[in-house]
Amino acid sequence: MPIQITRLVKSYGLWLCLFIVTLPAFANPQVVGHISFVKGSNAAQQPGAAPRILGKDTEIFQGDNIQTTERSFVIIEFSDGAKVTVRPDSNFTIDHYDGKSANKAAQLALHQGGVNASTGDIAKGNPDRFQIKTPTATVKPDSEKSEFTVAICDQACEEKGKKEAAANAERTEQSVVARVVDVKGDVSAINRADKNAKERPLSLGNPLYNSDSISSEKDSYALLVFPDGQKITLQANSELDIKQYNYQIKGKKDQVLLRLANGGLRALTGSIGKNDHNAYSLDTPVATIGIRGSGGDTETDGTSLNQTTWQDAMFVRTNDGVEHDVNEGFSLSLPSANSQPQVYRTPPNAPKPNEPRPDTNKSDPKSVFKEKPPAKGDTSVNVTKGRATVDSNSSKNTTKLKEGETGSTNKNGETTTSPIQSNETTPNNNQNSPENLFDGDEPDNSLEGCL
Questions:
Q1: pTM of the model
Q2: Concatenated DSSP letters for 208-252?
Q3: What is the fold of 174-366?
Q4: Structural element, H or E, at residue 272
Q5: Alpha-carbon distances of 388 from 131, 383, 422, rounded to whole Å
Q6: Which three-class secondary structure state does DSSP give residue 384?
Q7: If DSSP codes are grouped into helix, strand and coil, which group holds residue 162?
Q8: Which of these, 388, 347, 379, 335, lies nearest to 148 by C-alpha position?
Q9: CA 15/CA 9 separation, integer angstroms
Q10: pLDDT in tens, 403-416
Q11: What is the pLDDT of residues 228-272, one digit of tens each?
Q12: Which sequence spans correspond to the domains of the chain?
């Protein structure tokens, strides 16, 4: 492990600077980039050599270990056009960087703190060859152009996570109401209650909230699990609105109110519907689906409706207020909102949806919704542009993150994902106000006068 450059810089400041410039010169290794922006006290060190204080336009070499102090950071511009911001209180090594030969590759290591990365030509030619390794994961871009933040959780991060988990233990209307436990293709969500909300691509583990509208594309589906045990498979080319989901909220009655705007879904009732049939309602443009049991398929094109029950019993309430029972093994066809429904025994050879029935998924709601706050040493990745892949160092688990997603990987190889909650930007160029990483004056013992 390199010597603690930050400790030397903060302790000796200008004296260290004067000492370093009097040292004899060593043969320089390969130049791989330069510093395009610097703030505060930062230094780089080659193996076996003395540390170098970093200033604007300082050359960066292969093998450099870079350390930043509190409220200090540097931006490195590499030979292939990639940019990396080494954030305050960080320890970062350039193990290998080749942006010019036919075998372009970058192998970087984050030991402490965090970095923001914006990829260049190496990732454009082969995203898999640009890698940032941490103690728990290896992070790679998954698109020709990606921007992402990689950070290692410290003691303060762990304590903050515990406080947030304790606060989230008490359910409110703003709590997570479902999570994605199986997904294929392109499925996205947008929150209709927030006029500034953006569409969120969904992947494994992503949360959903009240007022979310979920849409699936061709050859796509998502299987959702709710805290009360309800499971829903949203089929391809479908749109589902979570109008209201209340569960174990103080002062609120448990309730499920969903709307299938178009397409199809396969639903398995949870404890809310089992304990109170009237607490569950699935609206469609044609009729309302209620339950007397627990499992069935619903399909609508906006003008007609088909309902099939494969477990226990359900019913369809038409516009005239009449309820039509659809028992297990039976189907109902409603050609239009004002027509008379037909109930018939489902033929053995009737076509079945390609998407999995939700009762085939064995996810335990208690495990799915158990708070897993980050612990010291965990790696977090925020993707702000493009896509990224997170490979666990201790298992074969691979997690793909899309733009707007964050993932956290622990020492056991487990990765949890969610939408990015903060408005954090990626200051990877001088046009993006890198000084906004933090507010306030220059840190004490600045070496700017020496550079």
A1: 0.67
A2: E-TTEEEEE-TT-EEEEE-TTS-EEEE-SS-EEEEEEEE-S-TTS
A3: Jelly Rolls (2.60.120)
A4: helix 271-275
A5: 10, 7, 18
A6: strand
A7: helix
A8: 388
A9: 9
A10: 888 888 988 888 87
A11: 999 999 999 999 999 999 999 999 999 999 999 999 999 999 999
A12: 5-156+373-450, 174-366
